[in-house]
Write a structure and sequence with these properties.
four-stranded antiparallel sheet, binds adenosine-5'-triphosphate, six-stranded mixed sheet, globular, binds magnesium ion
Length: about 240
Amino acid sequence: MLLEVKNLNTFYGLSHVLQNISLTVDRGEIVALLGRNGMGKSTTLKSIMGLAKPRSGKVVYGGLNLAGKPPYKIAQAGLGFIPEDRRIFNNLTVLENLNMGAKNQGGNAGSTGQNRWNLERVFATFPWMKDRIAQSGQFLSGGEQQMLAIGRALMGNPELLLVDEPTEGLAPLIVKQVRDVLKEINQAGMTILLVEHNYKVATSLANRVYLMGKARIGFEGTVQELESKPDVKQDFLEV
Ligand SMILES: Nc1ncnc2c1ncn2[C@@H]1O[C@H](COP(=O)(O)OP(=O)(O)OP(=O)(O)O)[C@@H](O)[C@H]1O
Ligand SMILES: [Mg+2]
């Protein structure tokens, strides 16, 4: 097991937005965390990454409990995070944005040797970027910004990538491109915990799925198990 989240509880003020969240991710998997708006999916990723502070529970990674550690320590341990809003630096170029992600080069336990991510490998995955390294972030389309956010996260050589809603707001053709890139980097060895609204995208990528109801996990199982339970889909999803 690469990541084990156990009984995580997170509050925003008085509001108890994560209630005993438990989930696991094995090496090499894509695990999807799905659910309607406001259920706590992003907060789950933020709590794992140290961007929201869990009040109790464990985030066990590489044998260590990282819960409550600062985000930079959690990144050093091998986790990468692509937030919902992508956080591309508008006033930095494509190259500068990528280099911002490279701060962990040499530091992470993640990919080693040939398998390490660097500029060359990012450009091989996203050929358009190479011709546009000098372009400023603000002139990229939504899809390009998402690709850049993925490339930047890869530059940090995480072992486990947390990705929040990567296809949100993108045109269908671009949704497919982002989906295919996630598939490709997973096949190249990246483990992914994916929060996604697009059910088709999520289930075409993931081997296992967790469904979130309000602040809690309501279902866990394989995509096949979920597909055989239309009532569960109806309860937890907009499908
Ligand atoms: N910074 C914050 N301060 C206070 N409440 C928050 C904050 N961020 C989120 N919340 C609330 O916490 C709950 C969980 O939010 P979260 O963003 O984790 O949900 P989500 O499942 O990611 O939703 P969405 O699908 O809309 O992205 C919601 O009720 C939300 O309004
Ligand atoms: Mg969210």
